[in-house]
Fold these 4 entries.
Entry 1:
Amino acid sequence: MSDKEKQPVVMVIDDTPEHLKLLSGLLAKCKYEVITFERGDLALKEAEKSPPNIVLLDIKMPIMDGFEVCERFIATPNLMDIPIIFISDIYETLDKVRAFQVGGADYITKPFKFEELKARIGTHLKIRMQQKELAKYSRHLEEMVQAQVQEITKSQTATISALAKLAESRDDDTGRHIERVTLYSEMLAKTLAVSSLYRKEITPTFIEELYFACPLHDIGKIAIPDNILLKPDKLTEEEFEVMKSHTTIGAKNLASVLTKYPKNAFIRAGLSIARSHHEWWDGTGYPDGSKREDISLYARIMTVADVYEALRSNKCYRKAVSHKEACETIIDAAGSQFDPYVIEAFEQLSEQFERVSNEKADEYNG
């Protein structure tokens, strides 16, 4: 038998046996399943095991009066939505008001007319059924929306990945640079989220945005000429200025995307990282000379990951350094190049950085 075909269960709580017998007989004729209790505490125990569809409740009862019984129903998760109709011989307005304040759905004064009671029970059962159907529909709609959001997110991240790979292919033949730097950034963020000054700012959403935005940090390199990007010797001052422009080029292009999709959090985070991942904590970086908290936290985390990755990777102009040397270089720059709080997290993660570097190393990495 389906839920719609089942007889609605009406729980009647009243300390007068004659009232229970009368209501039980009348409600049974309406094809309701009726369960009766003379005490509220006993009714609550039964309701917790097998919730009724509706409750008819007297007010003046021993041990636990109707107001307390109603409050206990409302306070119990699987009983809180059950409609409760007070049936009492109390005529005082304040008592009626209190009945609604404690969570009652309706109030009928004794002696009552059964046709009125029957109509009110039917109305509240119908409302409750509609509420359940609406909740079911809302859950279904939420699941559909969530599935659609996940699909959109997948397509967005796939596009981001493709853009990042395109830029990376200019000066990295292995394809693992992005993977490593993204993992380093994620590790730093998760550690900072636990025990740092930034733990309130670094939410799960922040970490997700950072993770998917990190690959965009060097997107602007796609516009840097090969003779500069791949030059095996030290860049001239003029060439270095061109190289530095990859930050503003990347940010400019991502800003144009963000104009069309202003709610895309990944692109917004990526723009911040692309522009600011070469900024220094002390204000001597580029392109804006931003300092301290004026540099986005995304970028302050990313720059530590990026420098470690750069030091540990072979470049056309130099060989990779050891993990120990890379750590010493980065830790020595705390408070000048790097946010000291991010470096504290880096020190905690030193061994894990080395493990990622080794496990996901390129064939030619040291």
Note: The chain has a mean pLDDT of 85.
Entry 2:
Amino acid sequence: MMKKIAYITSGVNGIHRFTYNELSLLKDNGIDFNLCLTQLKKGPCMPKNEWVFFTANRFKAIKCFIVLLITNKEILKMFFEARKKNVLSYFFISLSLYSDIKKNDISSIHCQMGDEKLYIGYFLKKIMDIPLSVTVHAHELYSRKVYDNNDEIRELYSSCDQVLTISEFNSEIINKDFGVKKEKLKVMRLFPDIDVLNYVKGKTKILIVAHWWRKKGYDVLIKALKNLKRDDYVLWVVGNSYHTEDSIDVEKLVKENKMESQVAILGPQGSPILDILFQSCDIFCLPSYTEYYSDNNPSSREGIPVALMEAMAWGKPVIATDHAGNTELVEKFIVKEKDIETLTKTFEYLFDNKDKWNEYGKRNQQVIRDKYSKTNIDILVNTFNSL
């Protein structure tokens, strides 16, 4: 029978990367879980769609408390214990999570937190009468609250059926300073994983650097890539929305086209991260297009995007549109505005001719050296000197 764990952790910046890896491997090894989050905010690693997860909620906690007052005589004792120890917040978080997991066939509780937040698991164990385990990390051992509440932490650890930690060094501290017997202690070393989200290895890396304005052509780019019907590429998106009327929600666009597995939203970036991305990508694409007023006059256009120049200066093949001044800059791989079909075919050509990337990149570098070097500032310098 497959084990099912109530796995408690925080999602303050999404799920920590090593926790995400741990949960993924648990599934692979036949351990099912309900992921119980004290909170969940957006971060690099978010729960997988197929994971069952719950987030603490004040309304659910109060409702559960009222129900348990009627059905469980011990709940009032737990309430007064929590109030005495000044951990009512963790008591009510445990009730909120209990209201979600009580209907599932949970065999044990695991807390990915070895400080006073362990009270969440502590109260859940009392309510559910099932085993409790905890993983203690280094930062928790040196917390001021842990030092100042040694007796309480000792009691918390003693309530656990198993205490895990990530090194022999930590294990010795937990044994000597917190009185956990060695037979109850296990060392589970962490493990690295690379390309967890499958956005790097074996992928053709396409980069776009642009604010989320409609004129940047994100909608055209996503549709063209979707038409490729292949999974050996990833789109790295650098930029974000200004939330103006001419903005586009790229994250929503990606979800609507079911492209989450092939698009990495990296947010706004500057040097040196942006330089690293330009250097690491294989192809740069910016399919800009003109927007119009109702009377057909242009309402928004590029000049010549600096991001295109930067990609060319890094020696990358670029794809652009016949938009505004782009044709003054880009000699190869210009497609018509909003021409999704031709853009798709251009990507296919580049994917099938990787041996020519270096040639195209070197030519782009030469264009930058010839026409778009820093010596162009002389025009402005001379202007100021002549006034």
Note: The mean pLDDT is 93.
Entry 3:
Amino acid sequence: MKALVTGATGFIGSAICRALLADGASVTVLTRPTSDLRNLDGLDLEFAHGDIRDRAEVRAALDGCDTLFHAAAYFSHWGDRERFYDVNVGGTRATLGAAADAGVAKVVYTSTNNAIGAYAPTVATEDVDFNYWSTGDHYSISKYLAEVEAYKFAATGLPVVIVNPTLVVGPNDIRPTSSGQMIIEIATAKSPLYIDGHLNVVDVGDVARGHVLAASRGRIGQRYLLGNENLTVHEYFSMIADAAGVRPPRIKAPLGVALAAAHFYELRSRFTKRHPTATVSEIKIARLGEWYDCSKAISELGIPQTPVRASIQRAVDWYKANGYIE
């Protein structure tokens, strides 16, 4: 396999590169002049330069490649509203158009569970209706609309497989992502509060392996939830606290209090320019309840299922070793 990976400098994208290289694949990564390349240090990669929103630049990067892993996205639950749609929707349209122009054999598109729907305590599958409109979360909505683009290309003959990672944890989250920032917050005992909520947690290495398996085993035009264990928010926070050796949050905040705190965090972040501890849309998403049945990816792709407690411990250890947690 000769693959092009977009979003390769990110948390999931760099893990995909490592998984591909471990299998002996030849890997080209698409980067920009401003890309932070630390996650790719020491990896045997070819570099192409371009922007996923530029169809011609992606087409040039695909020269000689038979597989595309489109993992690039603007991932945040707080930020520039227009950028979510420009990058996540427009970038996906341009990148998949380039793949169609190049005639690649397979495309694996990295979506998210946020593009599916959440109905906990009912355990949802890939087939539930999208219900994130009311959250006002532009990441989720833009990723749903980007999936629509992927389905359109699949209908015209592009061999696209869609994968939907849940809450991903593990090492090498250098940014860190919003999920990584939450681990840091809990591991440093900065908040005594938790809320009612449900989520599904999965190891970043398992997600990367799921991408590679999707390229070889995934059915064209299908989506696969790449996840593992369903937890309540309190159970998840307690696992993080155990891994860090601190006390877990002890006070369950009513929805109104949690939303008020999130509004404060967002206001503060306008001045600090750092991602809020929690956003209003994240609180609303947690209340929707993200519990999933990931058996389709397990049975059809063979995605591994690393114990989540071990994955959280690896993440906390990495954050400590790299100065995110003192």
Note: The chain is about 45% helix and 15% strand.
Entry 4:
Amino acid sequence: MPYKFPLATTTWDHEEIDAINRVVSSGNLTMGENVKEYEHAFAQYVGSKYCVMVNSGSSANLLMVYSLLFTHNKDFVIRPGDEVIVPAVSWPTTYYPISQCGLKMKFVDIDLKTLNYDLDQLELAVTDKTRIIFAVNLLGNPNNFLRINEIIGDRPILILEDNCESLGAVYENKKTGNWGLMGSYSSYFSHHISTMEGGMITTNDEELYHILLCLRAHGWTRNLPDYNLVCGHKKSSSFDESFRFVLPGFNVRPLEICGAIGLCQIKKLPHLIEQRRKNASFFKDRMKDHPVIQIQDEIGDSSWFGFSLVIRPGLGIKRSDLLNRLKDAEIECRPIVAGNFARKEVAKYLEHSVFSDLPNADYMDAMGLFIGNQHYPIPEVLVKVSDFYKDIS
């Protein structure tokens, strides 16, 4: 059914349509100069040295993990069987690349207020076998990276960031996606900006940048600099280099149209996030001390992908009642990301372990959902939700 208040709406106007028409008219449809320009603009915005655009945030996660199998940097290299700690709540393609690369996942519980890692449990879960902590910034909310780095200490543990829902979020004056060795982003329709489909990987490491460029397109050398940290000097003959394959790569290239749209969208991004934060400020004020529903506690400066609604424990109120109220108000909603992924049927195909119990992830899975935020004022939606259960106080 169509909703009066949908989960997401378009951020496009005539500029994106004009950009599409320019690319189509040019006849240069495959990955080219628009993608390169967008990568540069994105890098400037997020404060990263290198950016690699791919066809989705899911592909960004895949290449981000896979690239570590091929680095020559002994501080970064991973091997099949290495342990990766993950939060129990995220999107499936946070987890799948870990399994696809032969790594072992360990699920850790979330904090019911921030919806990111339960940091006390994370600290207990880290062992000498841990090689990567995968930090997922959920629904726009940064992780507490100072605490995560304290937990790591001087151990050889890498941080990777799934920042697909949190473009523009800031923690300690640094944009999220930059706290780890690499960060992933999504520009799918429902995200902060949209390039139809699209994703990005950021890093400050030159070798990983070159590896990512190679893996993105078949594992060939064509898109690498003449001298690079994958194969050294390229051959002088462009013919000899045209089909030279050096890594077992993929084809996850973006379209040139997506790069052109991205150039339009990245210019609008500061304003889009500013309005999302204004909506959040209004909503946080109305939801303060709400008798039934708790919303996400903000860490740093969230970019407020959406608004989580979790029924407070011990009230005897079912999520189905909240769902019915939202339906009656014509407000679209979804489960919070994929819920507790350790409980999904697909987990049996993924080599994993669960550290201790996951009571918070289980509770959120059963009693939580989220509604959309928008890049324009939505007071009517936020007032309706904040007035739910007004008689219980």
Note: The longest strand covers residues 130-136.
